[in-house]
Amino acid sequence: MTPPDEQKLGPYVVRTARREDIDGARSVMLDTFYHVFGHGYVPRWHADVVDPGRAYFDDPRQRLFVAVLDDEVVGTAAVRADGPKSPPHAPWIAERYPSGTTAQIFRVYVRPAHRRHGLARALVDLACRFVAETPGYDVIYLHTNASVEGAEPFWRSIATEVHDGRTDPRYSPAVHFEIPVPPL
Prior knowledge:
It is globular, with a radius of gyration of 16 Å. By secondary structure, it is α+β, with helices and mostly antiparallel strands. Helix content is 29%, strand content 27%. The protein has helices at residues 22-37, 47-50, 52-57, 91-96, 119-133, 151-156, and strands spanning 6-9, 12-16, 63-69, 72-80, 102-110, 139-144, 160-164, 175-179. An eight-stranded mixed beta sheet has the order 1-2-3-4-5-6-8-7, sandwiched between helices.
């Protein structure tokens, strides 16, 4: 029987991360920073990647999810009880999504060879279910880099745009989205 926080997608399993998944998840994240985003590791943005145990296992309101093929982590998603910061985002975005009551979806990355199998959607579904089951969250927020191929259309298929940062050169060009907290 499949546990409630686990989903089979063909040969893949999408589930809550375990401590033994940390190295694989970190590898997916770092490879994305270097090979997809092109900026590499930035300490002020990526503290959760250095210490995912503290970020996602020690705080009951935060969680890391993984997509696994055999024993290899091929995708990640995370929930943090943390709203967006200003800067780099516009002040009104940070005010609209305060830390504590905002569940921010982070680190939705799938290795290129494993894309187009529904893994990102399954990871986000699991993350949203976690938010619904965790007291104190009012909204689910995320932002994306629209220059990453497929990112913007993916998020538009499951979330509602709140602001397109590409329209205001003073702040990050991220596109900001919101997802309602699903009912239990």
